[in-house]
Amino acid sequence: xxxxxxxxxxxxxxxxxxxxxxxxxxxxxxxxxxxxxxxxxxxxxxxxxxxxxxxxxxxxxxxxxxxxxxx
Length: 71
Prior knowledge:
Helix content is 75%, strand content 0%.
């Protein structure tokens, strides 16, 4: 996925690669990486309807984790 994004950043498949990789990072609790990828996905993409919700969920989880760990 990373290779697809780096090699063909403007190709339509790069949007799907960003989405899939962001989901992986989210599940791994790598919040900053997930946010970076979600923010790189155009809102008019096929995932546009889910994008704001996923991005909000990641920000909330990052905030909760920071509160738990005192960061």
